């Protein structure tokens, strides 16, 4: 099923990927009432990380921003897996991003703009959200970035 949101993705030259399988004992997304919560999404492409390492060391902030965009696409796929249709998104409520950071890297908000800007481009006003950008020592599989999203859905 493809609606307006997926048409907008196509217009932007993007394809909704398949849902990234969990790395451990959790679900990629769960729905509770009108909310969908995604698990932390890594920037997996075709089952692997395109790059690993710390942002500000092995990975540039610009590369990490693109990886955060990939995380947001993976999160949209996870949302669709439980909501059935991305057109049910009423709004993005909150985005939380984790950036595996070199000790002196302080540009986490700029990295997370990759996810935020993608959601805004795809969802317009519905994509405006609250956000946290957190620097951490290491992420699963040595990923540079991880993003989780909370969405509110329409009732039907």
Protein model, in words:
The protein has 156 residues and is an alpha+beta fold. The protein has helices at residues 4-11, 61-83, 108-123, and strands at residues 29-32, 35-38, 89-100, 130-136, 145-153. Helix 2 packs across helix 3 (108-123). The longest helix has 23 residues, at 61-83. The chain starts with a helix and ends with a strand. The model has no long low-confidence stretch (mean pLDDT 96).
Topology (SSEs and partners):
Elements lengths: L3 H8 L17 E4 L2 E4 L22 H23 L5 E12 L7 H16 L6 E7 L8 E9 L3
Parallel strand pairs: 3-4
Antiparallel strand pairs: 1-2, 2-5, 3-5
Largest sheet, described in full?
Answer: 5 strands, mixed
| CA-atom Rg in angstroms | 15 Å
Mean pLDDT: 96
Distance between the termini: 15 Å
Structural class, from secondary structure content? alpha+beta
> Strand sequence of the main sheet, in spatial order?
1-2-5-3-4
Oligomeric form:
single chain
What overall geometry do the principal axes of the alpha carbons give? Answer: globular
By DSSP, the count of extended strands is 5
Unreliable parts: none
Beta fraction of the residues? Answer: 15-25%
Tell me the series of helices and strands, N- to C-terminal: HEEHEHEE
Percent range of helical residues: 25-40%
* Count of alpha and pi helical runs: 3
List the keywords:
single chain, five-stranded mixed β-sheet, 156 residues, alpha+beta, 30% helix
């Amino acid at each position: 099923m493809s609606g307006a949101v997926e048409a907008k993705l196509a217009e932007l030259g993007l394809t909704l990927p398949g849902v990234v399988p969990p790395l451990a004992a959790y679900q990629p997304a769960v729905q509770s009432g009108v909310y969908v919560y995604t698990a932390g999404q890594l920037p997996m492409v075709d089952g692997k990380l395109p790059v690993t390492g710390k942002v500000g060391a092995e990975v540039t902030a610009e590369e990490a921003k693109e990886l955060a965009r990939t995380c947001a696409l993976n999160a949209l796929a996870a949302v669709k897996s439980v909501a059935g249709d991305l057109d049910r998104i009423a709004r993005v409520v909150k985005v939380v991003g984790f950036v595996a950071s070199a000790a002196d890297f302080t540009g986490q908000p700029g990295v997370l703009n990759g996810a935020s800007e993608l959601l805004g481009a795809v969802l317009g006003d519905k994509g405006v959200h609250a956000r946290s950008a957190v620097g951490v020592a290491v992420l699963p599989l040595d990923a540079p970035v991880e993003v989780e999203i909370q969405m509110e859905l329409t009732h039907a």
